[in-house]
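To illustrate the input format used throughout this study, we show a single complete record. The first block contains the structure-token representation of the backbone; no residue identities are included at this stage. The design step must infer an amino acid for every position from geometry alone.
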């Protein structure tokens, strides 16, 4: 049975969805400067999200009446999760989803026949319009389980606790914009705090599921905050590093054992990276027949592997951040041109990070294509 929702007081007329459009700042080329390292010394990790990261934006502030409704709906969503015995992580995924789909408002319109908090569609089997406009029903439907409707909900998704929050939301919603949910994490946490919701509580992530549960059914009281960069991790930026780096031929045998040739500058960087970063696994030269414009066949690039998908492993994410930060801090003396890590690309020309789109060759959502499992380093 679905829980009864006393929501007449907070359901009313249609409300407007606030649109947030991020405007990226354009950074012009600066003149040549002295070639010096920048940033804090050592292997420093700054607790700040990189600029230009569309996955971690901040929603526009809501006025008092909208915020009151958002808090009320958040409580209903969490009441369903708590009654089921779901962990706080499930509530967070649901809040992020509702913020993206409806700005956490129970709207009676949307794309095609979508309505409600989660913009569920009657034609897709989520229920009738009246059903979906009941926030309690809609929340039960989002979480899924033995009760109707038929589309799989969160508890029906094998392995969802190991996914990033936006991946888990996408597994339920099957949106045309799979990465859109990530930008709402911060706002979801703020609303949860105002609503008195415990997002860190433990629970059964598959509570209410029909049939056997996957082996990963236990979630600790301190779930991995994979989508939030301010968890003892982070990426630094810095001022541009412009300088004159004479062209070099690939005249040195690749020290990473690929059998190819790299430039002396690349070989020197490998030696410094191995010494400073405790000899991480890496590979430099590669034919890259699928991308002949790559710096790898030119002997000007290396991939440093972090031991897994950084979106699913806090340790891998921290390792990649440390590698990227050290590379940036020493770029002024090593000749780094750019590096790619965790869906972002840093350029020595600008000193800033921006979202990596795959360059029309790689899938930026893939662990390797988006560089979530390795740091790519290109040198002049």
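Output of the design step:
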């Amino acid at each position: 049975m679905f829980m009864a929702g006393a929501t007449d007081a907070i359901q009313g007329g249609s409300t407007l969805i606030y649109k947030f459009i991020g405007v990226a700042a354009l950074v012009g080329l600066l003149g040549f400067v002295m070639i010096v390292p920048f940033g804090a010394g050592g292997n420093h990790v700054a607790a700040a999200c990189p600029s230009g990261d569309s996955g971690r934006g901040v929603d526009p502030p809501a006025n008092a009446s909208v915020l009151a409704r958002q808090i009320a709906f958040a409580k209903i969503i969490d009441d369903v999760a708590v009654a089921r015995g779901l962990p706080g992580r499930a509530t967070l995924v649901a809040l992020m989803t509702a913020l993206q789909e409806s700005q956490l408002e129970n709207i009676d319109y949307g794309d095609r026949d979508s309505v409600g908090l989660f913009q569920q569609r009657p034609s897709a089997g989520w229920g009738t319009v009246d059903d979906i406009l009941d926030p309690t029903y809609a929340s039960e439907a989002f979480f899924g389980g033995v009760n109707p409707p038929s589309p799989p909900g969160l508890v029906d998704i094998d392995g969802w606790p190991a996914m990033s929050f936006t991946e888990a939301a996408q597994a339920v919603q099957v949106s045309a914009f799979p990465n859109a949910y990530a930008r709402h994490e911060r706002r979801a946490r703020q609303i949860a705090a105002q609503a008195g919701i415990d997002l860190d509580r433990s629970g059964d992530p598959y509570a209410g599921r029909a049939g056997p549960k996957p082996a990963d059914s236990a979630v600790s009281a301190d779930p991995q905050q994979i989508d939030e960069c301010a968890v003892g991790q982070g990426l630094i930026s810095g001022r541009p590093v412009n300088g004159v780096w004479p062209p070099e031929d690939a005249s040195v045998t690749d020290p990473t054992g690929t059998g190819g040739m790299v430039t002396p500058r690349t070989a020197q960087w490998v030696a410094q990276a191995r010494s400073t970063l405790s000899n991480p696994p890496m590979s430099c030269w590669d034919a890259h027949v699928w991308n002949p414009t790559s710096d790898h066949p030119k002997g000007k690039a290396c991939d440093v592997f972090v031991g897994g998908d950084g979106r699913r492993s806090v340790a891998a994410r921290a390792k990649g951040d440390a590698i990227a930060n050290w590379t940036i801090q020493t770029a002024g003396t090593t000749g780094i041109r750019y590096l790619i890590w965790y869906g972002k690309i840093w350029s020595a020309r600008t000193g800033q990070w921006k979202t990596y789109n795959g360059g029309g060759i790689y899938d930026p959502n893939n662990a390797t294509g988006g560089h979530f499992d390795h740091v790519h380093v290109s040198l002049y």
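Structural context for interpreting the output: Confidence is low (pLDDT under 50) at residues 1-58, 217-233. Residues 17-53+229-380 form one domain.
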